[in-house]
Amino acid sequence: MIVQRRAVSAVLAAAALLLTAGCSDDGDGGAAGGGESRAPTDSASASSPAATEEAAPAKGSAKVVRTVAEGLETPWGLAPLPDGDLLVSSRDEGTITRVDAKTGKKTELGEVPGVSPAGEGGLMGLALSPDYASDHMVYAYFTSASDNRIVRMLYDEAKPAGEQLGAPDTVFRGIPKGFVHNGGRIAFGPDKMLYAGTGESGEKGLSQDKESLGGKILRLTPEGEPAPGNPFPDSPVYSYGHRNVQGLAWDDRQRLFASEFGQDTWDELNAIKPGDNYGWPEVEGRSDDPDFHNPIAQWSTDDASPSGIAHAEGSIWMVGLRGQRLWRIPLKGTEAAAEPQAFLEGEYGRLRTVVPAGGDKLWVVTSNTDGRGDPEGTDDRILEVQVQ
Protein backbone atom coordinates (compact mmCIF):
# COMPACT_ATOMS: atom_id res chain seq x y z
CA MET A 1 0.00 0.00 0.00
CA ILE A 2 1.43 3.35 -0.97
CA VAL A 3 0.30 5.22 2.14
CA GLN A 4 3.41 5.36 4.27
CA ARG A 5 2.84 5.81 8.00
CA ARG A 6 4.54 8.50 9.99
CA ALA A 7 7.78 7.92 11.89
CA VAL A 8 6.82 8.27 15.52
CA SER A 9 10.37 8.93 16.66
CA ALA A 10 12.09 11.49 15.47
CA VAL A 11 17.59 13.04 -11.83
CA LEU A 12 18.89 14.12 -14.23
CA ALA A 13 16.49 12.05 -16.29
CA ALA A 14 13.66 14.13 -14.95
CA ALA A 15 15.54 17.26 -15.99
CA ALA A 16 15.63 15.95 -19.53
CA LEU A 17 11.92 15.33 -19.31
CA LEU A 18 11.41 18.97 -18.29
CA LEU A 19 13.26 20.17 -21.36
CA THR A 20 11.24 17.99 -23.71
CA ALA A 21 7.87 18.64 -22.08
CA GLY A 22 7.87 22.42 -22.44
CA CYS A 23 7.06 22.67 -18.73
CA SER A 24 5.76 26.00 -17.46
CA ASP A 25 6.64 25.42 -13.83
CA ASP A 26 9.18 27.22 -11.70
CA GLY A 27 11.58 27.84 -14.55
CA ASP A 28 9.39 28.62 -17.44
CA GLY A 29 6.97 29.11 -16.41
CA GLY A 30 -2.88 29.43 6.95
CA ALA A 31 -3.85 29.83 9.86
CA ALA A 32 -5.79 27.17 11.68
CA GLY A 33 -9.40 27.81 12.52
CA GLY A 34 -12.07 26.09 14.52
CA GLY A 35 -14.21 23.22 13.37
CA GLU A 36 -14.41 19.48 13.73
CA SER A 37 -11.91 16.95 12.44
CA ARG A 38 -13.94 16.03 9.37
CA ALA A 39 -13.72 17.01 5.74
CA PRO A 40 -15.08 20.49 4.97
CA THR A 41 -18.49 20.52 3.37
CA ASP A 42 -18.78 20.02 -0.37
CA SER A 43 -18.21 23.21 -2.36
CA ALA A 44 -21.75 22.80 -3.74
CA SER A 45 -23.28 22.23 -0.33
CA ALA A 46 -26.95 23.06 0.08
CA SER A 47 -26.14 25.00 3.26
CA SER A 48 -24.21 27.59 1.28
CA PRO A 49 -25.37 27.63 -2.35
CA ALA A 50 -23.48 30.01 -4.61
CA ALA A 51 -26.74 31.51 -5.82
CA THR A 52 -27.37 33.12 -2.42
CA GLU A 53 -23.95 34.74 -2.22
CA GLU A 54 -23.07 38.23 -3.27
CA ALA A 55 -20.41 38.36 -5.94
CA ALA A 56 -17.14 40.17 -5.30
CA PRO A 57 -16.86 43.42 -7.28
CA ALA A 58 -15.70 42.95 -10.86
CA LYS A 59 -12.90 45.48 -10.42
CA GLY A 60 -10.39 45.64 -7.61
CA SER A 61 -6.98 47.06 -6.85
CA ALA A 62 -3.60 46.09 -5.44
CA LYS A 63 -0.68 48.31 -4.44
CA VAL A 64 2.57 47.67 -2.61
CA VAL A 65 2.53 49.52 0.70
CA ARG A 66 6.13 48.77 1.65
CA THR A 67 9.01 46.33 1.38
CA VAL A 68 9.03 44.34 4.62
CA ALA A 69 12.35 42.55 4.12
CA GLU A 70 14.99 42.12 1.44
CA GLY A 71 18.16 40.14 0.79
CA LEU A 72 16.45 36.74 1.13
CA GLU A 73 17.95 33.72 -0.62
CA THR A 74 15.52 31.45 -2.55
CA PRO A 75 12.55 32.13 -0.24
CA TRP A 76 9.63 29.72 -0.68
CA GLY A 77 7.26 29.14 2.27
CA LEU A 78 5.92 31.82 4.60
CA ALA A 79 4.17 31.35 7.95
CA PRO A 80 2.97 34.33 10.04
CA LEU A 81 3.57 33.97 13.77
CA PRO A 82 0.92 34.96 16.34
CA ASP A 83 2.85 38.14 17.23
CA GLY A 84 2.89 39.27 13.58
CA ASP A 85 6.45 38.30 12.67
CA LEU A 86 7.07 35.94 9.75
CA LEU A 87 8.87 32.64 9.28
CA VAL A 88 10.31 32.13 5.79
CA SER A 89 12.02 29.05 4.33
CA SER A 90 14.99 29.05 1.97
CA ARG A 91 14.52 26.36 -0.67
CA ASP A 92 18.22 25.94 -1.51
CA GLU A 93 19.86 26.73 1.83
CA GLY A 94 17.44 24.57 3.82
CA THR A 95 17.08 27.18 6.56
CA ILE A 96 14.16 28.88 8.29
CA THR A 97 14.48 32.58 9.14
CA ARG A 98 12.35 34.81 11.33
CA VAL A 99 11.58 38.24 9.88
CA ASP A 100 10.49 41.12 12.08
CA ALA A 101 7.44 42.38 10.20
CA LYS A 102 8.01 45.95 11.42
CA THR A 103 11.76 46.39 10.95
CA GLY A 104 12.65 43.63 8.48
CA LYS A 105 15.35 42.29 10.79
CA LYS A 106 16.23 38.68 9.94
CA THR A 107 17.14 36.02 12.52
CA GLU A 108 18.00 32.51 11.37
CA LEU A 109 16.31 29.81 13.46
CA GLY A 110 18.46 27.02 12.07
CA GLU A 111 18.94 24.58 9.24
CA VAL A 112 16.51 21.72 8.63
CA PRO A 113 18.53 18.49 8.45
CA GLY A 114 17.95 16.13 5.56
CA VAL A 115 17.02 18.71 2.91
CA SER A 116 18.41 17.78 -0.53
CA PRO A 117 17.88 20.76 -2.87
CA ALA A 118 18.03 20.20 -6.62
CA GLY A 119 16.00 21.62 -9.48
CA GLU A 120 12.57 22.56 -8.12
CA GLY A 121 13.12 20.61 -4.88
CA GLY A 122 14.39 21.66 -1.48
CA LEU A 123 12.86 23.22 1.63
CA MET A 124 9.46 24.51 0.55
CA GLY A 125 6.16 24.98 2.38
CA LEU A 126 5.80 26.00 6.03
CA ALA A 127 2.80 25.85 8.37
CA LEU A 128 2.26 26.38 12.09
CA SER A 129 0.58 23.70 14.18
CA PRO A 130 -3.11 24.39 14.90
CA ASP A 131 -2.02 24.21 18.58
CA TYR A 132 1.04 26.40 18.09
CA ALA A 133 0.24 28.52 21.15
CA SER A 134 0.86 25.47 23.35
CA ASP A 135 3.14 23.16 21.32
CA HIS A 136 5.28 25.65 19.28
CA MET A 137 5.51 23.19 16.39
CA VAL A 138 6.49 24.30 12.87
CA TYR A 139 5.69 21.98 9.96
CA ALA A 140 7.80 21.91 6.79
CA TYR A 141 7.58 20.14 3.41
CA PHE A 142 10.92 19.28 1.84
CA THR A 143 12.77 17.16 -0.68
CA SER A 144 15.10 14.59 0.89
CA ALA A 145 17.59 12.30 -0.85
CA SER A 146 14.82 9.76 -1.47
CA ASP A 147 11.41 11.47 -1.43
CA ASN A 148 9.35 14.51 -0.50
CA ARG A 149 8.23 14.50 3.12
CA ILE A 150 6.60 16.54 5.86
CA VAL A 151 8.26 17.06 9.22
CA ARG A 152 7.49 19.03 12.35
CA MET A 153 10.01 20.76 14.59
CA LEU A 154 9.88 22.51 17.95
CA TYR A 155 10.66 26.22 17.69
CA ASP A 156 12.41 27.17 20.95
CA GLU A 157 12.86 30.95 21.06
CA ALA A 158 14.86 30.72 24.28
CA LYS A 159 17.82 29.09 22.52
CA PRO A 160 20.53 31.05 20.66
CA ALA A 161 19.88 32.13 17.07
CA GLY A 162 20.76 29.34 14.68
CA GLU A 163 19.94 26.65 17.27
CA GLN A 164 16.23 27.24 17.81
CA LEU A 165 14.87 24.35 15.72
CA GLY A 166 14.42 21.01 17.40
CA ALA A 167 15.13 17.69 15.69
CA PRO A 168 12.61 17.02 12.91
CA ASP A 169 9.89 14.45 13.55
CA THR A 170 8.81 12.97 10.21
CA VAL A 171 5.03 12.85 10.15
CA PHE A 172 4.63 11.81 6.50
CA ARG A 173 7.00 10.45 3.88
CA GLY A 174 7.02 8.73 0.50
CA ILE A 175 5.77 11.54 -1.75
CA PRO A 176 7.49 11.05 -5.13
CA LYS A 177 10.38 13.41 -5.84
CA GLY A 178 11.80 14.59 -9.13
CA PHE A 179 13.98 17.30 -10.60
CA VAL A 180 10.66 19.00 -11.36
CA HIS A 181 7.06 18.95 -10.06
CA ASN A 182 7.59 18.41 -6.34
CA GLY A 183 4.53 20.36 -5.21
CA GLY A 184 5.43 21.68 -1.77
CA ARG A 185 2.61 23.79 -0.35
CA ILE A 186 1.19 22.79 3.05
CA ALA A 187 -1.53 24.43 5.11
CA PHE A 188 -3.79 23.63 8.02
CA GLY A 189 -7.42 23.98 7.02
CA PRO A 190 -10.38 25.31 9.01
CA ASP A 191 -10.92 21.70 10.17
CA LYS A 192 -7.41 21.65 11.72
CA MET A 193 -6.31 18.97 9.26
CA LEU A 194 -3.04 19.23 7.32
CA TYR A 195 -3.36 19.65 3.54
CA ALA A 196 -0.44 19.16 1.11
CA GLY A 197 -0.18 19.89 -2.61
CA THR A 198 2.04 17.39 -4.42
CA GLY A 199 3.42 17.10 -7.95
CA GLU A 200 3.70 14.10 -10.24
CA SER A 201 7.52 14.44 -10.25
CA GLY A 202 7.58 14.41 -14.06
CA GLU A 203 5.83 11.02 -14.27
CA LYS A 204 2.44 11.93 -15.69
CA GLY A 205 0.78 8.60 -14.96
CA LEU A 206 1.03 9.09 -11.20
CA SER A 207 -1.65 11.79 -11.26
CA GLN A 208 -4.43 9.38 -12.28
CA ASP A 209 -3.20 6.60 -9.98
CA LYS A 210 -5.16 6.90 -6.73
CA GLU A 211 -2.64 4.57 -5.09
CA SER A 212 0.17 7.09 -5.68
CA LEU A 213 0.87 10.18 -3.59
CA GLY A 214 2.05 12.15 -6.64
CA GLY A 215 -0.15 14.69 -8.42
CA LYS A 216 -2.59 14.95 -5.52
CA ILE A 217 -3.96 17.10 -2.75
CA LEU A 218 -3.49 15.14 0.48
CA ARG A 219 -5.46 15.57 3.71
CA LEU A 220 -3.81 14.36 6.91
CA THR A 221 -4.19 14.56 10.66
CA PRO A 222 -1.47 16.64 12.38
CA GLU A 223 0.20 13.29 13.19
CA GLY A 224 0.33 12.30 9.52
CA GLU A 225 -2.48 9.75 9.31
CA PRO A 226 -5.24 9.81 6.65
CA ALA A 227 -7.75 12.33 7.98
CA PRO A 228 -11.26 11.27 9.05
CA GLY A 229 -13.82 11.85 6.32
CA ASN A 230 -11.41 11.49 3.40
CA PRO A 231 -13.11 10.32 0.18
CA PHE A 232 -11.10 7.10 -0.23
CA PRO A 233 -10.93 4.61 2.68
CA ASP A 234 -7.65 4.62 4.63
CA SER A 235 -6.06 6.96 2.08
CA PRO A 236 -4.63 10.47 2.49
CA VAL A 237 -5.76 11.34 -1.06
CA TYR A 238 -8.31 14.17 -1.10
CA SER A 239 -8.32 14.96 -4.84
CA TYR A 240 -6.34 13.66 -7.80
CA GLY A 241 -5.52 14.29 -11.45
CA HIS A 242 -3.25 17.23 -10.61
CA ARG A 243 0.02 18.11 -12.33
CA ASN A 244 1.77 20.26 -9.73
CA VAL A 245 -0.15 21.99 -6.94
CA GLN A 246 1.64 24.85 -5.15
CA GLY A 247 -1.29 26.97 -3.95
CA LEU A 248 -3.92 26.17 -1.29
CA ALA A 249 -6.44 28.58 0.24
CA TRP A 250 -9.88 28.57 1.84
CA ASP A 251 -12.60 31.18 1.42
CA ASP A 252 -14.68 32.54 4.31
CA ARG A 253 -17.11 29.61 3.94
CA GLN A 254 -14.34 27.04 4.38
CA ARG A 255 -14.19 26.00 0.72
CA LEU A 256 -10.83 24.94 -0.64
CA PHE A 257 -9.21 26.36 -3.79
CA ALA A 258 -5.93 25.29 -5.42
CA SER A 259 -3.64 26.61 -8.15
CA GLU A 260 -1.99 24.29 -10.62
CA PHE A 261 0.82 24.57 -13.17
CA GLY A 262 -0.07 23.64 -16.72
CA GLN A 263 2.39 22.23 -19.23
CA ASP A 264 2.30 24.18 -22.48
CA THR A 265 -1.19 25.59 -22.66
CA TRP A 266 -3.27 26.27 -19.54
CA ASP A 267 -2.54 27.02 -15.90
CA GLU A 268 -5.51 26.53 -13.59
CA LEU A 269 -7.35 27.74 -10.51
CA ASN A 270 -9.58 24.97 -9.17
CA ALA A 271 -12.37 24.73 -6.61
CA ILE A 272 -11.59 21.47 -4.83
CA LYS A 273 -14.30 18.86 -4.25
CA PRO A 274 -13.28 15.77 -2.22
CA GLY A 275 -12.65 12.75 -4.40
CA ASP A 276 -12.82 14.58 -7.72
CA ASN A 277 -10.52 14.03 -10.69
CA TYR A 278 -8.95 17.22 -12.09
CA GLY A 279 -7.89 15.66 -15.36
CA TRP A 280 -4.10 15.67 -15.75
CA PRO A 281 -2.63 14.28 -17.96
CA GLU A 282 -5.78 13.46 -19.93
CA VAL A 283 -6.76 17.12 -20.17
CA GLU A 284 -5.07 20.48 -19.55
CA GLY A 285 -7.47 23.28 -18.69
CA ARG A 286 -11.20 23.02 -19.43
CA SER A 287 -12.70 20.08 -21.30
CA ASP A 288 -16.10 18.68 -22.24
CA ASP A 289 -15.40 15.38 -20.48
CA PRO A 290 -17.77 15.00 -17.49
CA ASP A 291 -15.30 12.71 -15.75
CA PHE A 292 -13.02 15.67 -15.03
CA HIS A 293 -13.61 18.69 -12.78
CA ASN A 294 -13.06 21.87 -14.79
CA PRO A 295 -11.06 24.84 -13.43
CA ILE A 296 -12.93 28.01 -12.50
CA ALA A 297 -10.28 30.07 -14.33
CA GLN A 298 -7.38 29.31 -16.66
CA TRP A 299 -4.43 31.24 -18.07
CA SER A 300 -1.79 30.93 -20.73
CA THR A 301 1.34 29.57 -19.09
CA ASP A 302 3.19 32.73 -20.18
CA ASP A 303 0.78 34.82 -18.11
CA ALA A 304 0.79 32.86 -14.87
CA SER A 305 2.79 29.72 -13.94
CA PRO A 306 1.11 30.03 -10.54
CA SER A 307 2.56 29.15 -7.17
CA GLY A 308 0.83 30.47 -4.02
CA ILE A 309 -2.75 31.68 -3.56
CA ALA A 310 -4.62 33.49 -0.76
CA HIS A 311 -8.21 34.55 -0.09
CA ALA A 312 -8.96 38.17 0.86
CA GLU A 313 -11.70 40.73 0.19
CA GLY A 314 -13.95 38.21 -1.56
CA SER A 315 -11.33 37.15 -4.12
CA ILE A 316 -8.59 34.61 -4.64
CA TRP A 317 -5.20 36.29 -5.14
CA MET A 318 -2.72 34.21 -7.13
CA VAL A 319 0.97 34.92 -7.72
CA GLY A 320 2.76 34.02 -10.95
CA LEU A 321 6.35 32.98 -11.57
CA ARG A 322 6.78 33.21 -15.33
CA GLY A 323 3.83 35.63 -15.41
CA GLN A 324 5.50 37.94 -12.85
CA ARG A 325 2.19 39.35 -11.63
CA LEU A 326 -0.48 39.14 -8.96
CA TRP A 327 -3.83 37.90 -10.25
CA ARG A 328 -7.19 38.74 -8.65
CA ILE A 329 -10.02 36.27 -9.26
CA PRO A 330 -13.29 37.68 -7.83
CA LEU A 331 -15.59 34.98 -6.51
CA LYS A 332 -19.27 34.25 -6.33
CA GLY A 333 -19.49 30.98 -4.45
CA THR A 334 -17.04 28.61 -6.12
CA GLU A 335 -17.15 30.35 -9.50
CA ALA A 336 -15.26 33.30 -10.90
CA ALA A 337 -17.57 36.32 -10.69
CA ALA A 338 -15.71 38.26 -13.41
CA GLU A 339 -12.62 38.07 -15.57
CA PRO A 340 -9.35 37.86 -13.57
CA GLN A 341 -7.35 41.08 -13.17
CA ALA A 342 -3.57 41.38 -13.19
CA PHE A 343 -1.53 43.68 -10.92
CA LEU A 344 2.19 44.39 -10.33
CA GLU A 345 2.98 43.02 -13.79
CA GLY A 346 6.76 42.85 -14.22
CA GLU A 347 7.37 45.27 -11.34
CA TYR A 348 8.91 42.82 -8.86
CA GLY A 349 9.86 39.85 -11.04
CA ARG A 350 8.80 36.32 -10.22
CA LEU A 351 6.28 35.97 -7.39
CA ARG A 352 6.28 32.76 -5.33
CA THR A 353 4.06 33.01 -2.27
CA VAL A 354 1.10 35.07 -1.07
CA VAL A 355 -0.35 34.89 2.44
CA PRO A 356 -3.15 36.87 4.14
CA ALA A 357 -1.79 39.62 6.38
CA GLY A 358 -5.14 40.51 7.95
CA GLY A 359 -7.98 42.63 6.59
CA ASP A 360 -7.17 44.04 3.17
CA LYS A 361 -3.44 43.23 3.32
CA LEU A 362 -1.33 40.43 1.86
CA TRP A 363 2.27 39.31 2.26
CA VAL A 364 3.86 38.59 -1.15
CA VAL A 365 7.23 36.84 -1.55
CA THR A 366 9.35 37.28 -4.68
CA SER A 367 11.37 34.45 -6.27
CA ASN A 368 14.18 35.95 -8.32
CA THR A 369 17.19 34.18 -6.70
CA ASP A 370 16.03 30.65 -7.57
CA GLY A 371 18.24 30.42 -10.67
CA ARG A 372 15.44 31.27 -13.08
CA GLY A 373 14.91 34.95 -12.41
CA ASP A 374 16.86 38.17 -12.84
CA PRO A 375 17.63 39.28 -9.29
CA GLU A 376 18.20 42.92 -8.45
CA GLY A 377 20.43 44.07 -5.63
CA THR A 378 17.68 43.86 -2.99
CA ASP A 379 16.18 40.50 -4.03
CA ASP A 380 14.54 38.50 -2.81
CA ARG A 381 11.87 40.46 -0.95
CA ILE A 382 8.74 40.22 1.15
CA LEU A 383 6.20 42.87 0.18
CA GLU A 384 3.15 44.18 2.03
CA VAL A 385 0.33 44.65 -0.48
CA GLN A 386 -3.01 46.39 0.09
CA VAL A 387 -5.88 44.95 -1.95
CA GLN A 388 -9.56 45.41 -2.56
TrEMBL record:
One Pfam entry for this protein is: GSDH
Q: Low complexity bias located where?
A: 37-62
Where composition is biased (Basic and acidic residues), the residues are 371-388
Q: What is its EC number?
A: 1.1.5.-
Per the UniProt entry, the signal peptide is 1-26
Q: Which top EC class applies here? A: oxidoreductase
Record PROSITE patterns: PROKAR_LIPOPROTEIN
Identify the keywords attached in UniProt to this record, alphabetized.
Answer: Oxidoreductase, Signal
- Boundaries of each Glucose/Sorbosone dehydrogenase domain copy? 72-372
GO molecular function: any one? Answer: oxidoreductase activity
| Region named Disordered | 28-62, 368-388
The record, for SUPFAM superfamilies, names:
Soluble quinoprotein glucose dehydrogenase
**What is this protein's name?**
PQQ-dependent sugar dehydrogenase
Could you tell me which species this protein originates from?
Answer: Streptomyces fuscus
The uppermost taxa in this organism's lineage are:
Bacteria, Bacillati, Actinomycetota, Actinomycetes, Kitasatosporales
